[in-house]
């Protein structure tokens, strides 16, 4: 290794590091502009029951950058989190979500739908989260029983006791809680017993693997068993195939979300699919029974 090469490698490494450290700042700067210029929106992904009827939706944040095109939440949410912008982004999400719920409530055909909204740990743990949410619910005249907040266990960074109390207090408003990405973290049964959640979302990674290997299938079965014991509903996320659906149904799971039923879509499209459902595909025609000679 000659000194020039060494220097070059060193500089490249420093540059790469700098880029990595400043990337979230760049994204964050753009994100503030995005909020101001209306580049953020919510997409709605259907949640269905065992009959394939839409019972509600999960609201998923989308960012369409004017120059860069769509930027996935897996990129901009961690960046927003890193620079402390997530509470601001999260209040945009809540505002949009509750405006949508209030529209639905005014329509007899949409009024029964539930809306699941992702709330990040930093947003939930803000001191004024509860007041902000109360005010929003009141302003939009929302029947809070239609609202479900999705939390991940990372929310527990603030401590089990204060989180459990805040959840209990919010629950008294009528809304419910769902534990997102269940099974991927350090899930402990002890905390599950203490938190007033009504639903577990079985993470997509298990759903994908369960139809293929026994260990993941066993994992899904034990999540179902825990849910049954604690009286919790389960939602399977990332259902893409009939085989996955069949397996999940065999475990007793009753609510499903995934590309098999619909991708996250703009509000108007989602409402259309509830109001004017496409005819379900006919089962394949029965083969004539071979006659014995
Ligand atoms: P999540 O809450 O676990 O959301 C489920 C993710 O799985 C979504 O990705 C959804 O589009 C995707 N998905 C659903 N069904 C399928 C499927 O059948 N196959 C595959 N391959 N993917 C499927 P998305 O929209 O990219 O969101 C990623 C994550 O970003 C979310 O995971 C959530 O943690 C976060 N996120 C999205 N919107 C918000 C938000 O408004 N607030 C907060 N705090 N986080 C959000
Ligand atoms: Mg979610
Ligand atoms: Mg999830
Ligand atoms: Mg997930």
TrEMBL record:
Domain EAL: 24-278
GO molecular function: cyclic-guanylate-specific phosphodiesterase activity
Keyword field: Membrane, Transmembrane, Transmembrane helix
Transmembrane residue ranges: 1-17
Superkingdom assignment: Bacteria
Protein name: EAL domain-containing protein
């Amino acid at each position: 290794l000659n000194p020039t090469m060494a220097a070059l490698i060193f500089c490249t490494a420093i540059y790469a590091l700098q880029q990595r450290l400043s990337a979230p700042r760049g994204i964050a700067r753009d994100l503030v502009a995005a909020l101001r210029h209306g580049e953020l929106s919510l997409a709605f992904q259907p949640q269905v029951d065992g009959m394939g009827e839409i019972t509600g939706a999960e609201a998923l944040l989308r960012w369409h950058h004017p120059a860069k095109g769509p930027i996935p939440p897996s990129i901009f949410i961690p960046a927003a989190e890193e620079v402390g912008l997530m509470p601001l982004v999260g209040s945009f999400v809540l505002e949009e979500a509750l405006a949508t719920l209030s529209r639905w409530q005014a329509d007899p055909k949409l009024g029964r739908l539930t809306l699941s909204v992702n709330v990040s740990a930093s947003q939930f743990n803000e001191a004024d989260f509860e007041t902000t949410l109360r005010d929003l619910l009141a302003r939009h005249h929302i029947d809070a029983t239609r609202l479900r907040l999705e939390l991940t266990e990372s929310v527990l960074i603030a401590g089990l006791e204060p989180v459990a109390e805040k959840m209990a207090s919010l629950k008294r408003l009528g809304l419910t809680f769902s534990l997102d990405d269940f099974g991927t973290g350090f899930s402990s049964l002890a905390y599950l017993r203490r938190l007033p959640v009504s639903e577990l979302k079985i993470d997509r990674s298990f759903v994908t693997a369960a139809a293929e290997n026994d260990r993941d299938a066993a994992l899904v079965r034990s999540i179902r068993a825990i849910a049954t014991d604690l009286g919790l509903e389960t939602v399977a996320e990332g259902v893409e195939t009939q085989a996955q659906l069949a397996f999940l149904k065999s475990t007793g799971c009753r609510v499903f979300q995934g590309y098999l039923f619909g991708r996250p879509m703009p509000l108007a499209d989602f409402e259309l699919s509830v109001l004017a459902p496409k005819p379900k595909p006919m089962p394949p025609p029965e083969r004539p029974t071979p006659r014995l000679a």
